[in-house]
Write a structure and sequence with these properties.
Distance between the termini: 38 Å
Number of helices: 9
Mean pLDDT: 95
Low-confidence stretches: none
CATH superfamily of the largest domain: FAD/NAD(P)-binding domain
CATH topology of the largest domain: FAD/NAD(P)-binding domain
CATH class of the largest domain: Alpha Beta
Number of strands: 20
CATH architecture of the largest domain: 3-Layer(bba) Sandwich
Helix content: 25-40%
Oligomer: single chain
Order of helices and strands: EHEEHEEHEHEEHEEEEHEEEEEHEEEHH
Strand content: 25-35%
Length: 370
């Protein structure tokens, strides 16, 4: 039987694959291949679901800011506001953080202790400094993911679930991709949007792995007394030890853990849950009544913690769209638009024209690839 031929095959249908496939729609015969039985099973479906403009560092800020209008106009954002809180003795560190991110284009304001108490009732003594980020917002991740899947489908992209890549080889001017019992397809271009499995996919395609590392992140849902105010901001520790936010009368809490992991169906560790609770109880005087749910997901980072967008410099027609860490959802519009433009050679537009492609190219890891 002759294998079906596609112009582009995108590996992975989480937010990365779904968004870039949607932006590629109309650029040929395109397959979106998902290993699991439904898209978004791993990192996308387990996101803490907020847009925070400092997330990822100054070189990710341009992607976040460029994506904001798309998310807002699409109705995927609910205003929340964010607070970075800092301990006694961290004033200089807070000032440096403020200057660095304001210079990158983030809107923030300093708060004194009285203003902090007004926004975070019950905060314990010793937390003397805060920065308020008014543009922080909740993201409806499920709606955004479905939006991109629907946009891809309406543009003629074919989604196939249960398609786990098992082998790949060059076939003339393109690729022969083996999906095991689901059969083989031919592809002109392979787009590696496999998240935690990105390096594995690269190796199957004969490309050198970049060192994209999955890191486990734990989140839990707490019932607390008093119940958190509905308008409570997202609260983040300047040192990166925790974050929490309200959700439907409950509280979502994370110890901001980053534990290296093999690509897998991640599960929370009790030690991380206990660590989060211990840190939380040192911040506010609210009483924890129950841990109602707990889960974990894998956030995948490149060695320099920036996303990787671009053709592999050694293996032809193999495009990296990976390493998006925990900010892949809030940067999805600009990242996907840029990725599609790089794949097709299309002219950059208003959303992407100010992005520095050199920051994200896989060629920056030339020493790793050698």
């Amino acid at each position: 039987m002759t294998a079906e031929r596609f112009d582009i095959v995108v590996i992975g249908a989480g937010i990365a694959g779904a968004s870039v496939a949607a932006e590629l729609a109309g650029a040929g015969h395109i397959l979106l291949a998902e290993a699991e039985d439904f898209p978004g099973y791993h990192a996308t479906g387990r996101s803490a679901a907020f847009r925070e403009e400092c997330y990822g560092g100054p070189d990710v800020v341009p992607l976040t800011l460029a994506s904001g209008s798309y998310l807002e106009k699409g109705g995927f954002l609910t205003p929340r506001g964010g607070l970075y809180v800092a301990r006694e003795g961290q004033g200089d560190e807070l000032d440096a953080f403020y200057r660095q991110f304001c210079a990158a284009g983030v809107t923030m304001e300093r708060l004194d202790r009285a203003a902090l108490e007004a926004r975070l009732p019950g905060i314990r003594p010793g937390w003397d400094y805060a920065l308020h980020q008014p543009n922080c917002a909740d993201i409806d991740v499920a709606a955004l993911h479905e939006h991109y899947l629907a946009k891809a489908r309406s543009g003629g992209v074919e989604l196939r679930t249960g398609h786990r890549l098992s082998a790949a080889e060059r076939d003339g001017a393109g690729w022969r991709l083996d999906f095991g019992s689901r059969g083989e397809v031919l592809a002109g271009v392979v787009v590696n949007a496999a998240g935690a499995w990105a390096d594995h996919v690269a190796c199957m395609c004969g490309a050198n792995p970049l060192g994209i590392t999955p890191l486990r992140r734990t989140v839990m849902q707490l019932r607390i007394d008093p119940s958190p105010p509905a308008d409570l901001p997202l609260v983040l520790d300047l040192s990166g030890d925790f974050y929490f936010r309200p959700d439907g009368g409950k509280l979502w809490l994370s110890p901001h853990d980053e534990t290296p992991s093999e690509p897998c169906d991640a599960a929370p560790e009790e030690m991380d849950v206990a660590l989060a609770i211990d840190r939380f109880e040192k911040v506010v005087d609210w009483r924890i009544e129950a841990v109602e749910r707990k889960w974990a997901g894998l956030r995948s980072f490149s060695p320099d913690r920036l996303p990787v967008y671009g053709f592999d410099p050694q293996v032809g027609d193999f495009f990296w769209f990976a390493g998006q860490g925990g900010y892949g959802i809030q940067t999805a519009p600009a990242g996907a638009r840029l990725g599609a433009q790089l794949i097709t050679g299309a002219t950059r537009d208003e959303m992407t024209e100010r992005l520095d492609v050199k920051l994200y190219t896989p060629a920056r890891f030339a020493a790793v690839m050698a």
